[in-house]
Amino acid sequence: MKAAEPLVKHLVLIGGGHSHLAVLRGLGMRPVPGLMVTLISREILVPYSGAMPAFIAGRYQPEDMFIDLRPLARFGGARLIQADIDSIDLEARSIVLPRRPELSFDMLSLNIGSIPDTSGMPGALEHTVGVKPIDGFLAAWEEIREQAVRGLQQGEGYKLAIVGGGPASVELACAARARILRDSGATDAELSINIISAADEVLSSHNQQVRDWVREELQRKGIEMLTGQHVTGFAANTVHCEDGGEIKADSIVVATGATLPEWPVKAGLATTADGFLEVNRHLQSTSHEFVFVAGDAATIRGMERPKSGVYAVRHGKPLARNLLRYATGRRLVRFTPQRHALAMLNLGDGRALASRNRLFFRGRWVWRLKHWIDQRFLRKYRDLPQMRQELTIARGLVDRREERELRRHAMRCGGCGAKVAGSILQEVLETFPATAGIVDKGVEDAALVPTPAGHELWQTVDQLKAFIDDPWMFARIATLHCLGDIHAMGAQPDSALAIVGVPFANRSITRGLMRELMLGCTMTLTEEGCRLLGGHSSETEELQFGLSVNGHAEPGKTLRKQGMQQGDVLILSKPLGTGALLAADMRHQAGQVWMGRALREMLVSNRGAAAILAEHEASACTDVTGFGLAGHLLEMIVSGPVKLYQGDVPALDGALECLERGVFSSLHADNKLTERDIDGSDKLRESARYEILFDPQTAGGLLAAVPETRAKSCLAALHEAGLEKAAIVGQVGDAADGPARIVLV
Questions:
Q1: Number of neighbouring beta carbons within 10 Å of residue 317
Q2: Separation CA 75–CA 68 (nearest Å)
Q3: Would you state the pLDDT for residue 317?
Q4: Which of 174, 241, 413, 416 is catalytic?
Q5: Residue 40 and residue 472: Cα distance in Å, rounded?
Q6: DSSP label at 297?
Q7: What residues of the chain score a pLDDT lower than 50?
Q8: What pLDDT score does 696 carry?
Q9: Peptide bond preceding 31: is omega within 30 degrees of 0, i.e. cis?
């Protein structure tokens, strides 16, 4: 989080719906200085509803239907928080999130979609799957598909019931039929799909020509329409109807009329007769002017329209415009929804139909048109303009070579990639006079402070610049990072002082940022058995957080860096690659799949690994952080070479791809100066696996030397503790074999 101007107003976007995509893209194209924006979404990879039938039918891959909110939020300058909503206090203007600090806001925008209306249908939650939210349905669909394929291949048949007679039911029935038959090799006779509708006909909102043609098409596909059936409830594999009849099925999907989750209504927002949130023509709540609502959740007073993505997607531009106009005190613009929209239905077999009012078209060309429209929409929010980092240097101050290098790294990294280069730090330290009172002058992760009682007290300090725009999660990861030096020594963190820097903002926003940071810190310290005693805060250009940590250990029980013995095996507890991934994330080139896994690794404490390494008689240990694996390993070597199994060094998903594309942390080049102490063939040096040795790590793992006889059991214990990517990465050689170097093998 970086603020060149003071942050004075907070806009919170809840939901990753289509309208909020337009808001985020608009903010990226035209930032609003002084406006802090936060996006809260249950899912970060959000599906585009228009592409779901093609995905179900097997014609689309995940990348053809999902939009990644992480690079889009980064592009729009928005904080991204993955969370559900517990409740909203509109009077206090605060949002309650599960297991996280409350968030205060000045303005609120809801784009949360809808869920199937199963009121009056007992048993729906226990025995059916709803088509919305889509992410939940897709997880269930994979299980349905596998069960259907298995049942058909074993000759048992399969029955799928879809409750609802609208477009979603027709598309799902056609798509599911195409995919299940393709994957199983079965025939229509073995697969039974029923569409159950209370109406006398399916697609009752379409013209008669469409209804007649679809009825015949479903009959040709062997999909049975059970119309005029009022569903009253569900039991296991059973649909109960009003006339007392029962419809048996192996799986039941509900695609009935839409409704809202409970929390927006409980918050006190005005609703319409249909149960949705009432807004005026500015998409502004009729009861709370600082709340805006778009998409399926909104009903414009006096201008009711069907709950369909075709209508909802049109809310994006007017919503983006009015949010910014309201924030800056300007007159809002009116939005008039279209009366009729072009509806396009995927038939699952390479054809589609299109209708608008009385018009009706069908065929493969309609499918190609729908495919083009859908993919154009996805590209708009996926293929974002490249970020440019301005670097203004007066002409003549540096030569062209140095200017090119400075421009290459003008976008500075956060996390450990923001450290001062180790070579520079060492040069400065070597100029210092000897300091009285320092007991241990070796290169260690923390300073040993003698105490009168004879116990060992270890102290360390670390501070990070924010690398993600979620202060709470940033504080949690930064806290674990700061504790890493103490854990690496095999010591127990005892107490800490916080160092906090927050961007220039008004009191309300500053208070909120501080609260998120400190709650994230204290939660993590409590989990680690460490106390927060106090700290210092200051105003900084970017969000920063650090800790000065005290730890204690029994004399002689600590692990040191420089204790490796000949023949010891090197074990790395976590994969590498956070530097490259964070650098890619800053350029909105690292999606949620990569970043989500990286953040989960960073949230793993080194406490457990340190205990396992100590139990297996580790002779030396350090945490791998800003100077990369190569830099920290060289600190451990006293004499003789160390073999490094380059191909066995574990990497985070996506890290090698980023390095291959030339995406490096801004500290990478300085870390690479250590290659003068590395031996290896040209072939080994020409790969991303070589570059990852210099990648700076944030909340990285431990690197330890363990006796060869204990290495396998130690690795097994690390895997059992959940450190699945822990690996043996090298072995300590004999001092007689040569100088202290890293030898790549």
A1: 15
A2: 12
A3: 92
A4: 416
A5: 13
A6: G
A7: 412, 417-422, 424-425, 428-429, 431-441
A8: 96
A9: no
H or E element, residue 313: none
DSSP labels, 407-431: HHT-S---BGGGSPPHHHHHHHHTT
pTM of the entire predicted model: 0.84
Per-residue pLDDT tens for 107-117? 999 999 777 77
pLDDT of amino acid 21 = 94
Q: Tell me which amino acid residue 3 is.
A: A
Three-state secondary structure along 520-576?
HHHHHHHHCCCEEEEEEEEECCECEEEEEEEEEECCCCCCCCCCCCCCCEEEECCCE
Nearest-10 Cα torsion for 167, 170, 176, 182:
-120
Is 521 a residue of the active site? no
Are 224 and 192 in contact, with CB atoms under 8 Å apart? yes
Q: For position 388, what pLDDT does the model report?
A: 56
CA gap 588, 386 in Å, rounded: 8
Q: Output the pLDDT for position 465.
A: 92
Amino acid at 725: K
Which residues are paired to 414 by β-bridges? none
Q: Across the strands, what pairs with 231?
A: 241
Angstrom distance (rounded) from CA 491 to CA 615: 13
CA 644 to chain centre: 33
315: Cβ–Cβ under 8 A, 6 or more apart, which residues?
18, 19, 111, 283, 294, 295, 298, 335
φ/ψ of 539, rounded to 5, equals -90, 125
- What pLDDT does 296 receive? 85
Secondary structure class of 361 (helix, strand, coil): strand
For 415, list phi and psi in degrees, rounded to 5.
60, -150
DSSP state of 470: -
Q: Which of 699, 708, 700 is nearest to 618 (CA)?
A: 708
